[in-house]
């Protein structure tokens, strides 16, 4: 089957979005977050304010331009797992990728920018809560996972917090593994017989 390619219009929109985000971040780092307005970003990126808002819902969102992508990847780690892939390793893989992105060279000034801005800190917290709720919804809906809604919401919060804790660690990647050992133990407590459960067709259910 032929995989459809991204059309010219979609590529152009993606390029415009990236240009706006890159321009905003550069201005924020140069002048300070509070000193830069939406009109400043639009003018520097050579787009209309309405175009900027068609890509980003708020000024804060300009700093977290990968927000939707990360949220989607986390939920897809649940919904798009291979038939026999366990849940926790799939989530750990995505958190590893997220932490690598957020601790890459050049990321430190961005996190200082966020730490120094109450508006950005508040936005990040609301973003993390939204990601946790989206992940919990995916866990509850997964047909092969039969844990309670409370268990799914709890594990989802743990997974999102793992990213924040690991990002601040001396060795972020090692911290992800350490935290996920605990997450896996907590998840297994909610489904102690998961390794032996079978589906209607006789296959082992994932957990």
What is the structure about, briefly put?
By secondary structure, this protein is mainly alpha-helical.
Shape annotation? globular
Count of distinct strands:
0
Structural class, by secondary structure, is mainly alpha
Average pLDDT confidence is 88
Low-pLDDT residue intervals, each spanning 5 or more residues: 192-205
Helix content: 55-70%
Strand content: under 5%
Number of helices: 9
Distance separating the two termini: 31 Å
One letter per element, helices H and strands E, the order comes to HHHHHHHHH
> What does the radius of gyration come to?
20 Å
Q: Largest sheet at a glance? A: none
Keywords:
disordered C terminus; 207 residues; single chain; mainly alpha; 9 helices; 0% strand
């Amino acid at each position: 089957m032929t995989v459809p390619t991204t059309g010219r219009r979609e590529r152009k929109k993606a390029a415009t979005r990236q240009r706006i985000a890159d321009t905003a971040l550069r201005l924020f780092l140069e002048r300070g977050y509070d000193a830069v307005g939406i009109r400043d970003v639009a003018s520097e990126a050579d787009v209309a304010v309405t175009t900027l808002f068609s890509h980003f819902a708020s000024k804060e969102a300009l700093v977290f331009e990968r927000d939707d992508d990360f949220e989607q990847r986390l939920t897809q780690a649940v919904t798009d797992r291979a038939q026999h892939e366990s849940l926790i390793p799939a989530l750990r893989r995505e958190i590893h990728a997220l932490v690598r992105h957020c601790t890459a060279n050049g990321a430190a000034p961005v996190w200082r920018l966020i730490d120094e801005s109450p508006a950005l800190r508040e936005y990040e917290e609301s973003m993390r809560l939204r990601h946790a709720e989206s992940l919990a919804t995916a866990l509850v809906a997964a047909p092969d996972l039969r844990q309670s809604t409370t268990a799914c919401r709890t594990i989802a919060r743990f997974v999102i917090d793992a990213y924040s804790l690991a990002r601040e660690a001396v060795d972020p990647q090692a911290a992800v593994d350490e935290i996920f050992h605990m997450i896996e133990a907590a998840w297994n407590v909610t489904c102690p017989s998961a390794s032996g459960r079978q589906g209607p067709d006789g296959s082992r259910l994932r957990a």
